[in-house]
Give the backbone structure.
Amino acid sequence: MSAGQDGGAAFPTQIGMRQTGQYETEFDTLPGMSLRDWFAGQALIGTLANSEGVHAATEPTNAILSGDRRSSFARFLATQAYDIADAMLAARAAAPPAREEKP
């Protein structure tokens, strides 16, 4: 997924700079995780923190957490988290730019 689709880097880090000309400097960066990954992680935390929401969307817990159903449940939660992240990125892209208020 490209930076335009995943929201770009959530926490880019500058690791050094180099002089490219008399008045020009470039910074080397580490992109960190994508904004999409960050949003998905936050959605997953919220889903797991709200156990009623998790149980309402699935079968009873005892049936889910055995054998193949456990990995199926994990895939369900991961897919749900990325669906939420994609919706957040779409809403972010559709939102009008914030206006600066003058004092």
Q: What stands out?
A: The first strand starts at residue 13 and ends at 19. Residues 68-94 form the longest helix (27 residues). Residues 63 and 81 are 22 Å apart (CA to CA). The chain has five helices and two strands.
